[in-house]
Design goal:
By secondary structure, the protein is α/β, with parallel strands linked by helices. The chain has a domain at 40-298: Metallo-dependent phosphatases (Purple Acid Phosphatase, chain A, domain 2, 4-Layer Sandwich), CATH 3.60.21. It is 27% helix and 28% strand. The strands form 4 sheets. Strands 1, 4, 5, 6, 15, 16, 17 and 18 form an 8-stranded mixed β-sheet that branches.
């Protein structure tokens, strides 16, 4: 590292030491040259599997399923990350495949998410138990078979003890990803299978274990909040403060199916902790205003020797374009669900441009002051 960047690093760390609560102020995000050692994490929201999505992915000629075409315009943003995470809000319980209210998606769905670039799927959510014990176990086995990492649900206590908290190592930096849900829609989890339920004692223990295992960064992915509410609930705020005080470095939220604010809270020790209360749907069949899109959240981490700091959080909005068979046109060669980032609206017909623009306008207004990832 040359003298110029050494001086920049010293300056940055000085800011941390003297004004730790300023780093993530929404209008004061510190930007670092990409030539420094930075690690990039990307988080996507809820991977839903409604019935029409299953039908759109089906290839009638050989009775297989292919979701890949719809994700091509976001693929670069995900694959270019050092590590990418999303919430698998379906089971892979096998046929018959079905959507709401108890989801069972084709195995190809998870495989296509791996091919898209996701490294880790979190599985603790209110639909974890949709297929019962058999469905939970088959989901775990399928994810193991296609060799994609996962956390949040477990076949038994031994698997939980051996594999949780989940820790990945990137360029010598250990990062722990935790995952919890508020519940399982009233469906009973049958022992010995396990679903991580929000419990502050268990969460604190997991954070402490992660630190003892060498994790420098701890990020919980929380399935929480009220569906379709665009502002975080008092319960989310309270739990986020607990997570910050317990030592988490950033917090990512799922479940409301709409985008909620990204804010910065201060821990009892004075550390600034970014909280993305809800990333909205990554993909779903929901078409109403606010539900028809989502965001990717990107976190940049500065890692220089013994110094590790979160330096930036930004977002990438995208709209979900539902294409019916009779509407196939232009670059969209088959029916399906196409995730259209804000810089690709020229691909859309005029009526769809209006819907997409409304989503982007709503999202930018909600996240005003934050940097949009270009």
């Amino acid at each position: 590292m040359n003298n110029r960047y050494a001086q920049l690093l010293i300056c940055l760390l000085s800011v941390f030491q003297t004004h730790p609560n300023k780093l993530f102020a929404q209008s004061q995000i510190i930007k670092i040259s990409d030539t420094l050692d930075t690690i990039t994490l990307v988080f996507g929201g809820d991977l839903m599997g409604h019935g029409p999505q299953i039908q759109a992915a089906k290839i009638d000629s050989n009775n297989t399923y292919d979701y890949k075409p719809g994700f091509r315009y976001l693929q670069g943003f995900i694959q270019n990350a050092d590590f990418a995470v999303a919430n698998l809000e379906v089971t892979l319980a096998g046929p018959p495949y079905k959507g709401y209210p108890q989801f069972s998606s084709p195995d190809e769905y998870a495989l296509n998410m791996k091919q898209l670039g996701f490294d880790l799927l979190v599985t603790a959510n209110n639909h974890s138990q949709d297929g019962g014990k058999r469905g939970l176990l088959r989901t775990i086995n399928t994810l193991n078979n296609i060799k994609i990492h996962h956390t949040g649900t477990f076949s038994d206590t031994q698997e939980f003890i051996s594999n949780y908290p989940y820790i990945t190592e990137i360029n010598g930096l250990k990062i722990a990803i935790l995952n919890y849900t508020y519940g399982t829609n009233g469906l009973t989890v049958t022992p010995p299978t396990m679903v991580n339920i929000i419990d502050t004692l268990y969460i604190r223990n997991a954070i402490e274990k992660a630190r003892k295992m060498g994790a420098s960064i701890v990020i919980p992915v929380m399935h929480w909040g009220n569906e379709y509410q665009r502002q975080e609930s008092p319960q989310q705020r309270e739990l986020a403060q607990f997570l910050a005080d317990a030592g988490c470095d950033a917090i990512i939220g799922m479940h409301p199916h709409v985008v909620q604010p990204i804010k910065t809270i201060t821990s009892k020790n004075g550390k600034s902790v970014p909280v993305a209360y809800s990333l909205g749907n990554f993909v779903s069949n929901q078409r109403e205003r606010f539900k028809d899109g989502g965001i990717l959240a990107r976190i940049k981490i500065l890692h220089q020797g013994s110094q590790t700091r979160l330096i930036q959080i930004d977002y990438k909005p995208f709209w979900v374009h539902k294409l019916l068979p009779h509407e196939v046109y232009g670059p969209f060669e088959k029916r399906g669900y196409y995730l259209i980032p804000s810089d690709k609206t020229t691909l859309l017909g005029e009526s769809y441009k209006k819907e997409a623009s409304q989503f982007f306008e709503d999202t930018r207004e909600l996240l005003k002051g934050l940097t949009e990832w270009k």
